[in-house]
C-alpha cells in the first residue's frame, strides 16, 4: 500500500486550534506534554529511591503542591491518549514502522547521540521554562500569556540561531 | 459557562476527558506529519514549513476562539490557566529548548507522537528528556533562585505591550498570514520548485483574506467585562436605566417570612458583609458579577434577586451590569441599605400617626426592627456563608 499523504497543514492547524479551544473550555487549561515527563520522572524516582525524594527539595516542593500520585495527573492521561491517537493515525495512513530516521549524511550513532542530547536539553529547558512547545508556547499563545509567547519566541528563535551550526545533522 | 471542570465534569471524569483529548491531539499531530523529525526541523532550514503553518494556524484559531467565548460569556476567563511570566527562565529555558529542538529533531509532544509510530530516534529523545528533567530536579537547589526570579505575574501579552486585546489579535493574525506567504516563497526557492500550482497563491488568497477579516471581528468583540463596566460607570447610561425596585418593607417582609426564593446579592465590602449579613445572601463586587460563581447564583429557577448596597446608585449600576450579562428577575432595594437601616432596622415611629395605612406600616416596621436584627444575629451564629469561590485552573507543564 502506498503511504498516504499528510493532511493539509492549515486544516490540521485549524483542527488543532479547535481542539485546544475545546480543551480550554472544558478543563480551563491547555494542552501539554513535558509535564507528563516530569510526572514520569518523579514517579520513577519516588518508587526506586523513596528515601531520596523524601529529603530532596525539588520533590518535596512537588509533593507539597500535588497531593495525589504524580501519575494520576491530567497530562499523564493526555499523553497516554497521544500515544493511542498517533498510533491509530499512523495505522490508518500506513506509517507505522520501527525505524531509526536520520539524514543519509550522518551515521545512526550520530543520530542517536543527537536525539539523546537534544531530548536531555529539551527536558531540562522545559522545566526551566515551565512548559514546552505545547504547554507553554501553543497554549500560552491561545490565552495570550506574555510568558508563553516569550517562551515560544525563545524556542523558535533559539532553534534558528543554532540551526546553522548543526546543519550537517539534517541537510 | 466554562470551564466545565470541576463543577459539571468532576476531577475523575476529567482524566477520561484528558485521555480523549490526548487521542485527538495525537491523531492530529500524526496526520499533520509531526511524527518525523525531518519534517519537524524543516522550518529551520527552509525546506518544509509545515510546523510553522500548523502551529500558527492552531494558535490563532484557539486565540480568537478564546476571545469570542469570553465575549459571549461562555467562558470565565478569570478561571482559565494563564501561564505565569518569569522572564529570565522563560527566555533561557526557551533557548535551551531551541537548541534541544535542533539537536534532537523533536519537541516533547511530537516525540511521543513519533515514538508511537515506531520511530526509534523519538524513543531515544524521550529517554533523553527524562534524563533532562531528572537533572533539573537534582540541580534544582542551584537553579531555584533563577527559576523563581523575574516574576511578572500573569500578564497577557497585549497588556505587556499596552495594546487592546482586539488590536493584538489582529496584529498576530496579520503577522501569521504574512509568515505563511513568505515561508512558502522561501520553501519554493529552497526546494527549487517551479510548479506554479505549488501552494498556488490564487487558492490561498481567499483563505488568507478571510482569516484576516475574521480577526477584525475581534474589534466587534471588545473584552466584554471592561466594555460593560465602562458603560455602567457612565451617568448618562444609568439615568436612562430604570431597574425594578423592591421597597424596604417588602424586602423586610420576605426576610422575616423566610422566603427561600429571595436571593440577596450583597455588594458591600467584605468586612461589612462579615459583620452583618442577611440570610440567603452572597457577597460580590462588580467584577465578580461576570464570573462563573455569579452565573451559578443567578441561575436558580423561580427566584428573584435583590441587589443590595449602601446606596441605590451602586445597586443600579450592578443591576445594569446584571441586565447586560443577561440575568433576569433582578431588583434593587429602594434607597439602598442606608434606607433599610433608617426605615426598618433603626425604625422609630413618629409621634403623630396620620392615616390608618401609616399606622399599619409603622406597626409592621416596629415589629421588623426587632425581628430583623435577631435574624441577622442568627445568621451570623450559623457562620456567614463563606463564598465558595471557584479557583483558577492549574495547568502548564
Describe this structure in words.
- Chain A has two domains: 7-96, no CATH class; 103-171, no CATH class.
- Chain A is built from eight helices and no strands.
- Chain A has helices at residues 9-27, 34-48, 50-54, 57-65, 74-92, 108-128, 133-142, 146-163.
- Chain A is mainly α and 171 residues long.
- With 397 residues, chain B is α/β, with parallel strands linked by helices.
- In chain B, the strands form two sheets. Chain B has a five-stranded parallel β-sheet with strand order 3-7-6-4-5. In chain B, strands 1-2 form a two-stranded antiparallel ribbon.
- Chain B has 19 helices and seven strands.
- Chain B folds into two domains: 2-223, no CATH class; 231-382, Oxidized Rhodanese, domain 1 (3-Layer(aba) Sandwich).
- In chain B, 42% of the residues are buried.
- The longest helix of chain B is centred in the middle third of the chain and has 26 residues, at 165-190.
- Chains A and B meet through helix 1, helix 2, helix 4, helix 5 and helix 6 of A and helix 1, helix 2, helix 4, strand 1 and helix 5 of B.
Brief overview:
The complex is a heterodimer of chains A (171) and B (397). Chain A is built from 8 helices and no strands. Chain A has 171 residues and is mostly helical.
Series of H and E elements of chain B: HHHHEHHHHEHHHHHEHEHEHEHEHH
Order of SSEs of chain A, N→C? Answer: HHHHHHHH
Rg on CA atoms of chain B, Å: 29 Å
How many individual helices of chain A? Answer: 8
Helix-strand layout with pairing:
The complex is a heterodimer of chains A (171) and B (397).
Chain A: H1 9-27, H2 34-48, H3 50-54, H4 57-65, H5 74-92, H6 108-128, H7 133-142, H8 146-163
Helix pairs in contact in A: 2-5, 7-8
Chain B: H1 11-32, H2 37-40, H3 42-45, H4 50-71, E1 85-86, H5 87-104, H6 108-116, H7 120-138, H8 140-147, E2 151-153, H9 157-161, H10 165-190, H11 201-216, H12 224-232, H13 235-239, E3 244-246, H14 248-256, E4 262-266, H15 270-275, E5 281-283, H16 292-297, E6 304-308, H17 312-325, E7 330-333, H18 336-345, H19 356-381
